[in-house]
Amino acid sequence: MKNDTQAVTRVLTAHVPLPIADKVDQIAARLERSRGWIMKQALSAWIAQEEERDRLTQEALADVDAGRVIDHQAVQAWADSLGTDKPLPVPR
């Protein structure tokens, strides 16, 4: 994999609310990094989070398609029991 100095790049522009821009500048100063570096880190982390969310959603939908589900009433009864002296086991 190429390092950042060799990667082909493209400029993306976004209007950012001033409080967020100020925080980016503060973090950049504290870490002695450029604003661009901070933005790349943030965007990379967000993309990874969204990819994981999508993976988990696809996995859950596959479980539903395969019939691997838990009855809503069983989950509700379990949730209602959590504040009692005798909580029910986690439904499976």
TrEMBL record:
SUPFAM superfamilies: Ribbon-helix-helix
Gene3D superfamilies with a match to the protein in the record: Met repressor-like
GO molecular function: sequence-specific DNA binding
GO biological process entries: regulation of DNA-templated transcription
Domain Ribbon-helix-helix protein CopG stretches: 11-50
PANTHER family assigned: PTHR40688, RIBBON-HELIX-HELIX PROTEIN COPG DOMAIN-CONTAINING PROTEIN
The name this protein goes by in its record: CopG family transcriptional regulator
Lineage: Bacteria, Pseudomonadati, Pseudomonadota, Gammaproteobacteria, Enterobacterales
